[in-house]
Prior knowledge:
Layout (H helix, E strand, L loop, with lengths): L1 H48 L1
Amino acid sequence: MLNLKICSYRCSFQANQANQEKQINLTRNFHKNGKKFYLVCKNNLKLSHF
């Protein structure tokens, strides 16, 4: 019974780590896209003001 608990704990831990890595990648991508979007908006504002 104890071995089963340890095994299930390990499996869930590995899955959790994978999810955290995915989350980090998503956050990175979000920031990259945010910067691009910001630059596009900034350029559009410049064009519309002048």
